[in-house]
Amino acid sequence: MMVARRRTTRITVDSGRGVFMISVAAELAEMHPQTLRMYEQRGLICPQRSPKGTRLYSQTDVDRLRRIQEMTTELGLNLAGVERVLALEEQLEATRRQLEQLEQQSSEARAEMEIELAAAQRTLRGELVPLERRSTDVVRAADFRRQRRS
Q1: How many angstroms separate the CA atoms of 89 and 94, rounded?
Q2: Cα–Cα distance measured from residue 19 to residue 77, given in angstroms and rounded to the nearest whole number
């Protein structure tokens, strides 16, 4: 007697790729398909479209729909409030990305400055001396000698 073995095939799809039709997306987000159409009209969600014009929702869209559902049911926000929260979150994310970019530029500039400073110190080693023992201030050696004489 031969036993049939079941094979499971796993397919991974980019979370931003539209793969769910409106009925499936509505079921996954636990809402009525008409609600999804209304959210699209308000600009809260922007599903992709198939070549024939069918709405195709991604996993990212479904997650956003669940988030909207959470804000309206659990937090009691109306759709205008949801729109404002989502806009502020997008603005915050853009600011975070800009801050990361500025931090990277600052880090690169600091590293470049340290290299240039080290090169300048090597070049001027004989001409610069510390002003005081524990100080990081430096003066030209000639000025230091003149200062000590007087």
Answers
A1: 9
A2: 29
